[in-house]
Design goal:
By secondary structure, the chain is of the alpha/beta class. The protein contains twelve helices and six strands.
């Protein structure tokens, strides 16, 4: 749709429209949350077998779970519901959603990152700086987890460059003030650090790598999309992605 020369985004389908679509569908369907990570699911679709299943982004977790709650309205469709664990990685998954396929880590990006060797793309100096900044990101994320556990809003979707500005190796004083950041407990820091590849939001981990791997000084530069592809396609076996794929195939009886 265009308005005065401006390309306008198409409206997202409503849940009733999605239910109506699923009622008419006969191809086994994998329902996923959004569009940002849909390329990863497209590669998973290739591994399942092109034409054996269709990937349907639902426009967010709420829409996905609402569709799950209404699955009795399309009982003849073989469907698999796949959701990012998000902050459920730090708490129990609600029992009513126990049959949803959940990522092992915080998100599908985590399941990809955690079993990859992407950090080996960093050269020696980049690796040293990345390790320092990663320690600070772990501390910030541990603070957000403690906020979540206190019942407060955890502001997870913050770009790492806002927390630790480019060219620095300290948490921004402005960020500390505006966010109200305080040092988290050593216990929570240890909890996050021990499994940071699974527990820190996957997009944050990829953005932190891109901070170094997109530098104009590098001969080979990467963006988030190219890192997804490197991580997925340079290994035949992926511990967490393969587990997710097998769960999808099982739900679809493939």
């Amino acid at each position: 749709m265009k308005t005065r020369g401006i390309l306008m985004p198409l409206p997202r389908p409503t849940i009733d429209e999605l239910v109506a679509t699923l009622k008419k569908s006969c191809l086994p369907t994998v329902l996923v949350e959004g569009t940002d990570d849909v390329q990863i699911y497209r590669w998973i679709e290739e591994r399942i077998g092109v034409g054996k299943a269709d990937i349907l982004p639902c426009g967010g977790r709420k829409m996905l779970l609402d569709l799950y709650d209404r699955r009795s309205e399309f009982p003849n469709l073989r469907a698999a519901f796949v959701a990012d664990r998000d902050m459920y990685v730090f708490s129990d998954i609600p029992s009513q959603y126990s049959n949803v396929i959940w990522t092992t880590g915080y998100s599908i990006e985590n399941d990809l990152y955690a079993d990859s060797t992407l950090e080996k793309l960093l050269d020696a100096n980049e690796g040293k700086d990345h390790a320092i900044v990663l320690e600070l990101i772990i501390k910030w994320f541990a603070f957000e987890v403690e906020e979540f556990r206190r019942g407060n809003v955890a502001q997870i979707a913050i770009h790492p460059n806002r927390v630790v500005p480019l060219g620095t190796t300290a948490i921004s004083e402005q960020f500390i003030t505006t966010r109200g950041y305080i040092e988290p407990t050593p216990t929570t820091i240890k909890e996050i650090k021990g499994k940071y590849k699974l527990k820190i939001r996957g997009k944050t981990l990829f953005h932190l790598l891109v901070r170094y791997l997109s530098s104009a000084r590098r001969a080979a530069r990467h963006n988030t999309g190219s890192l997804y592809e490197v991580a997925f396609k340079t290994k035949k076996k992926h511990r967490y992605i393969d587990k997710l794929t097998q769960s999808i195939k099982s739900d679809l009886s493939i």
